[in-house]
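Re: the 477-residue chain
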Amino acid sequence: MFDVIIAGCGPTGAVLAAELRLHDVRVLVLEQATEPVSFVRIVGLHIRTIELMAMRGLLERILEHGRQRPAGGFFAAITKPVPKGLDSAHTYLLGIPQPVIVRLLEEHAVRLGAQVRRGCAVAGFEQDDKGVTVELADGGQLRSRYLVGCDGGRSTVRKLLGVGFPGEPARTETLMGEMHLGAPQEEITAKVAEIHETDRSFDLRPFGAGIYRVVVPAAGVGDRVEPPTLEDFRQQLRAIAGTDFGVHSPRWLSRFGDATRLAERYRVGRVLLAGDAAHIHPPIGGQGLNLGVQDAFNLGWKLAAQVRGWAPEALLDTYQAERHPVAEDVLDNTRAQVELLSTEPGPQAVRRLLTELMDIDEVNRRLIEKITAIGIRYDFGAGPDLLGRRLRDIDVKGGRLYELLHRGRGLLLDRTGRLTVGGWSDRVDYLADPTAELDVPCVLLRPDGHVAWIGEDQQNLEDHLSRWFGEPADRFA
């Protein structure tokens, strides 16, 4: 009997497993693939995801394997500088090979005590009032209190659950891969610059030693299950650029479409969805992996609270209430970006107008905050603007704020020295006189770093501790 079974050991599933293990939840992760992905695709971690890695003490290890670049020029590939004064200590994009980040996150989960079984696929499940019986493709059965589908855009868990996945099917498709190019670099640079004047969906980006990331529109919409061939790339490069640049020796080849879909529900009873199982969208802006990891950080402590028995009645429902609107916003901004990449005169006119408007710092800042997810504000009710937002990694007494969140617990920052977390000390940490950098009397942080309360009254604090962290332990004594 497990507390939680997770289907899928990608970044979302691995992070969720680790978050649950911080609270001693018995976790099993089932991964259909027998081996981790081998192709070296580079993914980008945005500011908010980097902050979350810092919150759990993972960032230094991840930085060793990544490459930093400025956090600008994301929105529809419109090149603009990073806005000044972004509210984060980590104002960069971190490019990292996908197999590496998956390995690091899985190792983190296993180190905390999660079990991972490869070559195990979910074939069915039934839930009742006490748990979920999971049927495996090999005929075996497992039992858990909850099941979470982190099994990608073609999620078996979502389909078996009968949750609708409305949206738009793919209208266009793009080929992407990494390969060697035989043409001189000057020729490649000149041709890319020429094509970019009218088409930003085409790109050849060098990765050193003659290797390039090649992104080129496909001839139509095909079967995404089957990867493209090198000949597919050659044909499309010739059609658009007039040359195939001598492409050869690919490291990996893939295709992606612009399908955009969002699950109608993130939870049905004891079964939940996260990551691509809950939402898919074009990869423009690089938000997909980040959105899924952020789902996991939002869900992990809430599901752990439910398992451990201290969750307030509606806490688990706040997962969908908070994350579904965020996914809606991501789907909308990717739809907008896809339109801005069109070569048609109308979208090109809008692109030129937006490019001009982004010279206004506030417009540029708003779009960067949207893409990097640092502009998210959950609806916690009326209050100061900081309420519901994440608190950046400020200096605190003895170090940095995020160092105090490594254990995945709540945190009270008390500048008055008069408050206490009392009977919630098994779930919430306390720091008196934290820093002059905090310009409000006291702040209560959730385990995901979002501000749950601002004030200085003990009774009001206790009301909010009960709202987010349940009844105090001494009430059951």
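The chain is about 30% helix and 25% strand.
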